[in-house]
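Annex B. Sample input.
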Amino acid sequence: MPVDGNNVIPSIKPDGNLPNLFPTRQEEMAEELDPNIFRSDGSKKSARGFLGPVQHSNGRTMTEVSVGVPINGEEMEIPLFVPGMPQEELDMLSNMEIEGNAKNFPRTSMLRAIEHAMRRLEEGKSPFYQDGEENNPMTKEK
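Annex B, continued. Sample output.
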């Protein structure tokens, strides 16, 4: 956060919201206990994602499965779990090794995720689900 003299000035996030300057103790504890709630860029993952929590066969819960792909000449992370993903693809992914295994993800899943991310980026949205957007008419999926 930028500092102006003795005052800390919060930076506005790309979605237009201010960062959570005063997290609850419960949020702090969750972040301390589970580093998997953060993406590689440091942004916090949603506990819901577009499809809701998906149970992996290893017992862990997945909400988005981030994959790195080139979009408009720039490598970026996008969610693999997006609206329209068939149950059979979800089942396959929830029973396979995820970490470092993107080359074995179904091609249709990757193409769907890229199309979804590009559409959201064109709308000025993050490619990732943002908690609360299902209740906000300005951010609802079209």
